[in-house]
Each structure stands twice: as structure tokens, then as C-alpha cells.
């Protein structure tokens, strides 16, 4: 891939960089622009040193460049934003854990110029991601971060910067109680709260709810409608921030038990918006174009839908159509969030036409399991698919034809787990093994094909280590599954305890072979967690005691949480005896831990004192200003008291005169009061009359305006009528001319006809004469005969 070559070239140039040369900076900036576009798509690195060196060079550039507003610095920030938001765990680990970018980023944010919006936006985007997945921020950096963000909110006019700042503050407050307290204090002592209206309604609502605590059940319907509208508005651009805000507020609402009072499915407006959102999502799914933003968006939207179903399962029927469309789409139905949503959907007895085909498609896709580095399945996908299979078994959705397909998956995954050893077992292997065993128990109920696979996986060497590390992980979901598994039949409790005892020597050898001090310390810490349940006698006693309680639990008086608390109590008891049992093993590590704890405690105490001093300074400044106001008021009161005492002495001498004068003044005052009341009445009457006059004037203006409009319309109509009349008159004149011409032609023709008639009459007369002569001749002839 070209991006690897770009990284090599960048590392070579960065090692020889001269910050006095603008050519080098331009070349590096261009390389970074090429890397920024493609670094999200890197699945893995064959050379860890190369990529580590790349981010080290970026760290050096950010800390050594004199011009902090240069394009090179902005390009470095762009690469960090792309890296930390990628799905590559190796890159995220380097950026968040191995290289501490946070102090440098905070420094850049503090000294960022107000008019350099591009840089501030990239810094805030980086902090938005960095604070979610990095370690906890100390008190000193907390103070710097909150002060800087509040300044940007108060002084910046950019809506995007205000939104990002509130986003960072809200997410920071969710995971950090001291930050929440400090933000509240800052709100009281600054003008920032007045600037909250600059932000979007959803982020403002989240900030007030999470940080200030201004959120009640009455506010929930408004939040739901604002949330759905915001998500709907961002569908076309695949905006995920609104989904994050909505999920945080929904989670906050559930923590406040609002789901008991606010039933979403009973609000027609909210369900109507939800249906509109689903229709728009279906339209977007019909678009065949693919990009990473679209995939990420639909992952987040499914997480949001999952939270909605958990909040109110009465919404299930509203998700039938969108679920059908998503799970007929290959690109969006294979993710971990999609399978988690589908599992919950099936648990709630959700169904749609073609659900069996969608289940078969998922099983076919995951049946080709491999453990290669370039495998198409990540760890979360594997775990969610195993949980999905268990849900199918529990809800009787799995058929025999599915079981035959799953056999290859079970064999491949079982081989992968069997190949793990105590030395290379990690948290992912532990989690995968626990879910795999739980799923095998569920599959065995459906078909006997999985009996041998279950028996084999229960005899693996790493099983006791898996159990021990499961408690060390402290994941409630994993612990619940583990408790269910260990309580089932055929689980080798005694054998696990023996394996725990027999594998202790191998673990010690692995610890002693570790030469690096840091690795020795980490191995010692992990072994301490591993030894929590390692003692054979203690483990056997514990399991027997739990088994007896389970067998005697006929009336259901003992629940899972009580037995889990028994596990934890026993673990705490074993932990208290751990130091004496492993004194020779952990002496050096304990000493290092104590020294490190002392150093960290001293630094934390210093940071806490600094934070307290800073908070006290805020209180002190406020108290000084209030004290000054009180002093000024006190001086005025003392002066007034002295003058008042002198007046009392004078008035005491002239008491009688004062009483008379007081009576007169009282009469005058009463008279003035009466006059004042009458004036007030007159003033009120005048105001009413003035208001009526103003209203009348306004009404007359409106009437006049309407009259003008009517007159204008009438004039326009008259003009149009005149135009039409003129057109008709012209047409009539033309027609009249034509008629005159026709009349002339007719008159001429009439004259010609009259002449012809006269001619015919003359001819007739002549014919009559001829006839008369003929008749006379005939008469004469007859007479002769």
C-alpha cells in the first residue's frame, strides 16, 4: 500500500528536518496530506517500529516547530484526528497510550489564535476522540482544558467551535466527576452560560442535562423529538455526532429511571418522527455507493436503536421494516453493533418476512472463521456472533441445517483457542473462550453434533487461567456468562482447581524469564490477579460451597447476584492472603509499586493542592469583590447614621414644632398621594387612550393600505379592460372595412344582375311580341283554311 511508502519517506525527511528551511516543511506537509487520506484503511503493520517512529516524529514536530500556526502543524493535527478515529487498534494504542500527545495538544489549544478556526477545530476534534479512549486526565491538565474550552465558548463566534467545545466538555464530565464540578464552578464565575445559545439545541440540552443536571421527565419528550430531528437532518451527510449525543442523553435518562415514567411508544409525534427517520434510512440504504462514513453511521444508528429498544420495547413494531432492509444488506448487517441489535430484536420476539433467510446469511458469512491477521472478523464481531448464536438457541430460531454449517466454525474457533498457552493468553482470548463455551452449551441443547466439541474445550489447559483472568477483567457481562457456565453440568470444577495448582510453576518460569523491568512488573501484576483463585484447597472449598447452595436452592431463594457476591467476597479473602503466600515472588514488584505509588501520591497531592488553590483563588476573588461592596455599603451606613443622630438631637429640642410640622406634612403628603393617585388614574387613562389611538391608527393604516391595494387593483383592472376594449374596437374596425368591401362587391354584383334582368325582360318582351305575331299568323292561317 502506498501509505506505507509515504510513512517511510516522511520518517526519513523528519529525521533530517531543519525548521529554518521552508522547503522541508512544505515537503513534509504534502506527505502528511497523502498519509491523512489513507491511514484509516491500514489494517496492520508488519514493522511496528516504523509506525511508532512516524508518530514520534509528529510529536517532535508539534513540540519543536516555532510557528505553531503553520500548515505543517495543522497537517500533523489532521493525521492525528484520522488516526485516533480509525478502527486500527494498534494505531489507537500508540496515539493514546504509548505517546502522550495530550499535554502538547492542550498547549496548542491554550495558545491558539481566535481567528485560526481550522486549527482550533482540528484540536477540538482530536480532544473529542482522545479524551474518550485515553487514560484519565490529571487535575492540572483538567484545569487547563476546562479553562481553555470555556474561553473558546465565551470568545468565539463560530457555531462549529462552540458545538465542539460543548461536546468535549460534556463527554469529559460524563467520565470525570471532578471535571463536572469544575465546569459548574466555571459557569458560576464566568459569562459562559450566556453563550450556550450559540450551540445547537441537542448539544446544549446534553450539556445542561449531564453537567448542570437540568433534566426532568417533563423534558424527555422534547429531547426525543429534538434528537430524532437532528439525526434525521444528518442522515444525508452521515453525521454521527448527533447520534452520540442522543445515546448519551438516552443513557442518562435511563440512569434517572425515566423509562418508568416516559413511554416513547405512547407519544404519536415521537413515533411519527421515528417512522420518518426509518423511511429516510431505507432510502439511504438503497444507494449502492459505499464509503467509511456510511458504514460508521449505520453502526452508530443501530447502537441507538438498541438503546431505544432497551428503553422502551414497545417500539419493536416500528423497527420491523428497517431491520428487514438492514439485514438483507451485506455491508451493514455483519458488524458487532448490528448483531448486538439483532440479538435484542430476536429476544423481544421481533420478526419480519425473510428473517430466516437473514439468519442463514449471517451464519454462512461467519462460518468461514479464520484467525489470520488479515481476517475479515474482528474480536467484537466474533464475541457478538457467539452471543447471537446463543440467543438463536434460546429462542428456538436455530435449525438442524444451520448446525451442520456451524460445525466448521466451531472446529476452527476451537482449534484457535486450543493453540493458546498460559504465556500468550490475553484479554481477548479470555473473553472469546468464555462466550465460546457458553454458546457450545446452548448449541448442544439444539443438536448432539456439538457434544464432542464441548467435551474437548472443557479439557483445555488454559481453562483455569481463563477463569482467573475473567475475574481480573471485571466485566459484568463476562462474569455473568462465566457464572452460568460454571454452574452447568459436566463443567470440570475439580479438574480446573487441579490445573490451577499444576500450572503455577509454569507461570513462575514465565515470570523469571522476563528480563525487562517494565515487563516483569506487568507480569507480576497480572500474576497477582491470576493467583486470586489459584489455591487448590481454597478453590475446591469455594466451588463445593456454591454447588451445595445451588443444589439446596429449590425455592429460588438464592439468585445469581448473591452467588457472584460470594465469588467476589471469596476473591477478596484470597487476595488478603496473597502477599504472605507469594512473598518471595512479589517482594521486588511490591517495593517498586510502593515507590511508584508514593511518587504518584505526592504528584497527585501537589496537583490536587494546585487545583484546590485555583478553586480557592476563584472564591477569594469573588469574596474580595463582595467584601469591597460590603465595605462601601458600611461606610455609607455609618455616614447616614451620624447625620441621622444629629438630626434626632435637633428634632428632640424642637419636638412640638416638629409634631405640628409633621401633621402639616402628613396632610400635604396625603394630599400629594391623592393627587398622585388621580394623576396615576389620568396617566392610565391617557395610556389606554393612547394605546387605543395607536391601535386605531394602525387599523386605519391597514385599512388605507388595503384601500390603496384595492384602488391599485381596480386601476390595473380598468387598464386591462381598456386594453381589451381597444383590441376589440380595432378588430371591429377591421371587420367593418371587410364588410364595406363585401357590400361594394355585392352592390356591383347586384347592378350586374339588375342589368341582366332588364336584358332578360327586354328579351321576354321581344319573345312575347314574336309569339303574338306567330299567334296572329296562325289565326290568319286557320281562317284561311
UniProtKB/TrEMBL annotation:
InterPro entries registered for this protein in UniProt: ARM-type_fold
Entry keyword set: Coiled coil
Coiled coil (UniProt feature): 655-777
Keyword check for Coiled coil: yes
Protein name stated in the entry: Uncharacterized protein
Source species: Polypedilum vanderplanki (Sleeping chironomid midge)
